[in-house]
Design goal:
Layout lengths: L1 E3 L2 H35 L2 E4 L4 E4 L6 H33 E4 L4 E4 L13 E2 L3 E3 L9
Antiparallel strand pairs: 1-7, 2-3, 4-5, 4-6
Helix pairs in contact: 1-2
Bound molecules: zinc ion (ZN).
Length: 136
């Protein structure tokens, strides 16, 4: 059954939600940083006029360019991280559940469930077993 969380449990839930959002955002930010850096350092630019990738010969070694570009990309990647973190956290906070029939929904807190129950934010409830099972 679903029971209400205590304020202490809610704050713990929020801490883990922030952690979850951060690890998700970190993955995307690093992925974007690596992808763009390797492409640019490799000399591949997207030509906005032509709409296709063009190869350009550049001076310097690939690894030096990669390093310079990665440093230049850092603020952008931080921006991506912040944005993804915020979006993911909003998504996690939007998770709701119908305690009556155990249906999960996104952003439906307060809405009526077809079973007659009301969706509540997942942050405010937790699942516990109806009867504690004894270990034989
Ligand atoms: Zn329901």
């Amino acid at each position: 059954m679903w029971v209400e969380r205590t304020p202490d449990e809610i704050s713990k839930w929020q801490t883990s939600a922030v952690e979850e959002a951060r690890s998700h955002a970190r993955l995307i930010a690093i992925g974007v940083l690596l992808l763009v850096s390797v492409l640019v350092a490799g000399g591949w630019f997207v030509s906005f006029r032509g709409g296709f990738a063009v190869h350009r010969t550049m001076l310097g070694s690939f690894w030096l360019r990669l390093l310079i570009i990665a440093v230049m990309m850092a603020p952008f990647s931080w921006f991506v991280f912040r944005r993804e973190c915020r979006n993911e956290l909003a998504k996690i906070h939007g998770r709701s559940i119908c305690p009556k029939c155990d249906t999960a929904a996104d952003g439906a807190a307060g809405a009526l469930c077809p079973c007659g129950g009301t969706f509540v934010p997942q942050s405010t409830v937790k699942w516990i077993e109806d009867e504690p099972k004894s270990i034989a």
